[in-house]
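Course assignment 3, question 2. Fill in each field.
Student: A.L.
Task: Predict the tertiary structure for the chain below.
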Amino acid sequence: MTKKRRITFNSPVVLSFVIISLGVMVADMLTLGASTKMLFLTYHSSLASPLTYVRFFTHVLGHAGWSHYIGNMMYMLLLGPMLEEKYGSRAIIEVILITGLVTGLVNWFLFPGMALCGASGVVFAFIMMTSFTSFKEGEIPLTVILVAIIFIGQQVYEGVFIQDNISNMAHILGGIIGAMAGYTLNKKE
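Answer field:
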């Protein structure tokens, strides 16, 4: 007798994030970018506008194109379910919200001429959180050190020597948030 196989919604926060981001991409196409500019792109807009505060969080759902979306979602789908299973849905929501807020605020204050969108900060938070999954009190896994050195080194190099539209600031901040979350969450176990 064979068991029936069924598809499960195994990682509700991560899967919801991916699906909502897909909806944002479709809306972006249908509105010729107007929906993204209004709700899913953070930039130096007036603090008198309530949407400025909304965008501090929602910019992580918007993406600059399909390759940007696909790249980020692949990492979300690879890393997120494992993290959500280990730390729980609430912790993952908190990391996403904190990363969005911190990167949105830093972008608003320090880079007034630059718009920011995408889940890259969240992805880098997840990368650093993943490196802490085998962390034990009183130990520092070599993988954490190597990931941090390679990751920060790459971001600094790209920030200094490569002129592109990628926000290395969001990557670095996301990595720091993920490292702090990974350390804190594993310390509780």
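Instructor remarks: The longest helix spans residues 66-87. The mean pLDDT is 88.
Grade: pending
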